[in-house]
Amino acid sequence: MAPRLQLEKAAWRWVETVKPEEIGPEHIDLAYRVNLPACKRGTCRRNCKGNPNCLVGIGEQAWLGEIDENAFHNIDDPNSERRDKNTFVGLTNLGATCYVNTFLQVWFHNLELRRSLYQCHNSRAQEHNIESDYEPQSICEHLQYLFALLQNSNRKYIDPSGLVKALGLDTGQQQDAQEFSKLFLSLLEDTLSKQKSTNLQNVIQRQFCGQFSYVTVCNECGRSSALPSRFYELELNIQGHKNLTECVTEFLKEEKLDGENRYFCESCQTKQSATRRIRLHSLPPTLNLQLMRFVFDRQTGHKKKLNTFISFPEQLDMGPFLEGKQDQKCVYELSAVLIHRGISAYSGHYIAHVKDARTGDWYKFNDEEIEKMEGKKLQLGIEEDIAETVKSQTRKPKCSKGYHCSRNAYMLVYKVQEEESSDPSRTNVEVPAFLQRLVDQDNHKFEEWCSEMADMRKQSVDKGKAKHEEVKELYELLPAKDGEPYEFIPLEWLKKWLDDSTATKEIDNSFFLCSHGKLHPDKVAESKRVSLQAAELLYERYSGGPRLDGSSLCRECVSQRCRVLRLKNQLSEDYKEVSNMVKRTLSGEGYWVGKTSLRSWRQLALDQLEEDEHETKHSNGQTNGQGPHTNNNKEGNEDEMKTFNEDIVCSHAGLSILETERKLVSPEVWTKLRAYFPKAPEFTQNQEPCQQCLTLEQEEKDNEAVSKMMALDQKNQLLNLFNEKNRPTLAKWPQTRTYTGTDVLYIVPLFFVDEWRKFIRRPTKSSPVSNVGNTLLLCPHGGFMFTYDSLISGDLFSIHKQIPHNISDAGTFHIALLWPSEWEVISRLFIVDQPISIHCFKETTSSGSTTQYTTQPDLCWECRESFLFQQQRDLREYTQATIYIRKVIEDKRMIKEAAPELNASSSEAEEEKEEQPKVDGERDPDFSQVWLNGSIKDNLIPTSAAAVPVTNVTKLGGIRRSTRHRKLRGEKALIVSANQTLKELKIQIMHAFSVAPFDQNLSIDGKSLTDDSATLGSLGVIPESIICLKADEPIADYAAMDDVYQVRMPEEGFKGTGLLGH
After folding, report:
1. Domain named DUSP: which ranges (predicted)?
2. What pLDDT score does 791 carry?
3. pLDDT of residue 964
4. What is the DSSP secondary structure assignment for residue 342, as one 8-state letter?
5. How far apart are CA 481 and CA 532, in angstroms?
6. Rounded CA gap, 929 and 827, in Å?
7. Dist CA 1005 CA 837 (whole Å)
């Protein structure tokens, strides 16, 4: 079948020879493609959307032929969740709880521990009603129930969330597995100590506890002192060692105590050099050896993993390391190896290899998955083939028979070698009846679930088979034969009907309706023509509507499309003819046409035809079959689309008064244009221009004359203010006051002066200024907000939006100073809401005469203190601010700050240099606090005129200090927030300077920044701060760098969990 566009063109090719009024039924059938041949199966690779008779490739392939019943459901076989015979039960990983699962499996396989836990008194379990779910409370109860399920559950894996929740562990955060082991055994020991039975009270000590002593010998007198101690595991350093024997030897080796580390000898009664070593006295039946792979790196401040190979034997003789008690059993057999996959201490995965005490088989426990090793041998295999990013990796050493090598093993569990016995009770642990009853209850629930899943699978299969029969029956009836009744069905509905993954909804044809309530011609491509018999069956089973049959073909839409397409074909010929006719001299009556419209009428006609054609197209189902069709898109684009002749329509809908923008054309030209733009505004040659526009034009000319006269008058009266000549400045006022003869200056907002100047320069384009607007510079109480010194130092320009309401936006206002004579003119010409002035006078005291300043209105102390307080607070509570990181080099002094940029004269620049740079975070220098009568007062007296900084005065009377930061070499700007931690800032610095956080020494104003968890606001880092960065030599430790990327928050370990008694 031809492509969709070709089919669409062929459907409307007849319009070239047929006028709208000549359209017959055969033309409507062509437009709706009723007679296109149907496609046969195998001829189309996909469905022909342009052909309503093509019923191939709509999803029928999946239903024709034989179908495997498994295709009718997506439910897994519930038996896949069932525990296999002679296997163990796994544990669900709740997110990052693999470290918990490994230890639970190791402890479960400790038969003595399991047997003892089963003996613990549990009245809650014994009295439990099996009709409700059992909820353990204590740790012992949780562990009892968990072990019973691990032993006799029918499930392939069980959920340990009850125990994890009782311990208060965060399931999304991986923790230190070794620390978890210590804390959990300690908690369990404490819990069991409350049992009545002595055997149960001491089970942890009997299984895991050994004894050693720290022996110290004085080098001076030879006195020996021993400090006995218990251990539950031996923590063995692996750094620099190759095998387990070396690790144990180093653990027991002699240590020298000298220098500051000398030992206080009781005999010598003074500190003496000594030696200290550990002596092993007794070993437990279960010997836990912690390989210290996770160590604290002092240089990085974080933990890192040692990925070094350690060799360990299957049979371990601890006899050479024991002292005394020769009758003690010293030969141990390996029973478990705990593995950590990954190179970082802060990521990876934990698994356990455990030996079955009953059969001697080795199993790998990986959360839900359990794998039995072949040949009753430990096979670490893939655990040692994890991809590494560390470049300097050593090759795996060869291991002799009976030994294993691992760079990921972090704990080894050895059990004392027992004599072979035929007594099965030693390896058989029976689940007590009260616990077995709970396990049976859970197994019953599991079996019910399996049965329910099986029923759901059967229902899906039965439903699928029924649908299969329905499709085979109906699909054969779908094709409509020539000359027989037919209906249109949406293609998407047919596809969903044949797609068993979605529920079949009722048939909805409302999307296909035109504005006349019939089938839209453009929707034929998205519908299929089916036989009346098939349509009857589909509507009977699925309902819906409105039904679209042969009478639903819309003659009005076809006629409108025919007109538009004919005009499109005729446009080029008419354009040439109109272009020639416009050039001829006009004789007789004519019509006004906009020159812009005339230049672009061809494009406007194309746009108009596209719009008309769009009206005959379906507008995305906006009607849904509800009432007449309306083109909402047209309404939205009306302002943007320029229609023909609207360029000579004024705002009052009359003829524009601008004759230069319009042209007279002949009636013949207008007739042709009118055919393309039937709704265009029409103006004959005798049409009068808009009278309202003529009146407004005259009024505008009169107003412009008045504005010009007003501007000239105001300019002449305030000539110096306009030209910025002979302006008063606060900084020079004390010196110039003697020859200017004035003790008072007036203050207005610079905004007022700027707006006034705009009006003077362009009186016809700008509005005249009427109000001075001084209230913007006052507080809500009507008081002035700024002292003489603060106006000099420029804190007016750091007003924040938290300042009281009537000056809340004053941050955009500078001030302008006026001479008294200018103020007199201002008061006469403009509305003055509130005069503001600053007065200068001499005050003679015993220590001499001083210059003092006052303002009118008076200074509002309350609002000023509030303003300064808010100013300091804002420096500590910013959300997005720029700071500068300046890298300094060892043994070199930090470069001094560059002077701020100046746009002033050279003399002013010299005075600017006298200003000392203000220390970040320092209080406003003019606000020297003095306690008078219990309140804070401003010191209104400047120290000296020379000390007053003079800044850029190119703006009239404006006092502006340059705040632009001059970046130096080796300095970079960063965007930060006040609640950001120092740790997060170090990460930003790492990306900017390629210096790792642990190599960064940061300081601000000579104060070191060391607390990584502290926020920048609490450390005194404010906007525009300069932080000095001194970088240490980088550490070539890739694992440590990996840890830095992994760690973002301070490590809290098991703080707040049940393991610490919370």
Report:
1. 459-554
2. 74
3. 53
4. S
5. 10
6. 36
7. 40
Confidence (pLDDT) at 921: 37
Phi, psi of 347 (to 5 degrees): -155, 175
Phi/psi of residue 827, each to 5°?
A: -65, -30
Structure tokens at 164: 């994890």
Rounded Cα gap, residues 110 and 518, in angstroms: 80
R_g (Cα) of the chain, nearest Å: 47
Six-digit token string for 909: 């620049």
Tell me the whole-structure pTM to 2 decimals.
0.53
CB count, 10 Å around CB of 314?
Answer: 16
The type of residue at 493 is W
* Number of Cβ atoms within 10 Å of the Cβ of 794: 19
Question: With the CA atoms of 313, 314, 315 and 320 taken in that order, what torsion angle do they form, in degrees rounded to the nearest 10?
Answer: 20
The owner of tokens 């180093």 is 250
Structure tokens at 26: 């055969």
Q: 82 - beta bridge partners? A: 155
Identify whether the C-beta of residue 1042 lies closer than 8 Å to the C-beta of residue 343: yes
Q: Beta strand pairing status for 507-508 and 544-545?
A: parallel
Peptide bond into 820 cis (omega under 30): no
What angle in degrees, to the nearest 10, is found between the helix axes of 532-542 and 433-477?
Answer: 150
Token representation of residue 658: 């601008």
Active-site amino acid positions: 98, 349
The structure tokens listed for 450 are 């399996």
Q: Which of 305, 386, 378 is nearest to 337 (CA)?
A: 378
**Mode of pairing for the β-strands spanning 255-257 and 274-282:** antiparallel
Rounded CA gap, 903 and 906, in Å?
A: 9
Whole-Å CA distances, 456 to 70, 344, 941: 12, 45, 90
Distance between first and last Cα of the chain: 75
Of the candidates 643, 654, 648, 673, which has an alpha carbon nearest to the alpha carbon of residue 592? 648
Distance from C-alpha of 447 to C-alpha of 458, rounded to nearest angstrom: 16
Contact 932, 787 (CB under 8 A): no
Q: What is the pLDDT of residue 1056?
A: 67
CA count, 13 A, side-chain hemisphere, 351 = 20
Q: How many residues are listed for the chain in this entry?
A: 1062
Strand partners, 545: 508
Place of tokens 């088989």: 361
3-class SS letters over 949-1016: CCCECCCCCCCECCCCCCCCCCEEEEEECCCCEHHHHHHHHHHHHCCCHHHEEEEECCEEECCCCCEC
Q: How many CB atoms lie within 10 A of CB 264?
A: 12
- Looking at the DSSP bridge assignments, the partners of residue 355 are 362
Provide the pLDDT for residue 615. Answer: 61
Which amino acid is present at 250?
A: E
Instruction: Find out whether 532 and 485 touch, Cβ atoms under 8 Å.
Output: yes
Closest CA to 841 of 728, 742, 928: 742
Residue 955: predicted pLDDT? 36
CA distance 1044 to 613: 64
pLDDT tens-place string over residues 550-559:
899 999 888 8
Q: Are 565 and 11 in contact (CB under 8 A)?
A: no
* Regions of the chain where pLDDT drops below 50: 1, 387-392, 618-641, 795-813, 891-963, 1035-1050, 1062
pLDDT tens, residue by residue, 84-93 = 888 999 999 9
The whole-angstrom separation of Cα 167 and Cα 277 is 37
For residue 436, the tally of other CB atoms under 10 A from its CB is 15
- Sign, CA torsion 335/341/347/350: negative
Burial of 105 (0-12, 13-18, 19+ CB in 10 A): buried
* Number of neighbours of residue 463 by Cβ within 10 angstroms: 13
Instruction: Look at residues 288, 115, 103 and name the one whose alpha carbon lies nearest to residue 200.
Output: 115
Contact at 8 Å (CB) between 573 and 43? no
Q: How many CA atoms within 13 Å lie on the side-chain side of 450? A: 16
Query: What stretch of H or E contains 670?
Result: helix 667-676
Question: CA 440, CA 151: separation in Å to the nearest integer?
Answer: 12
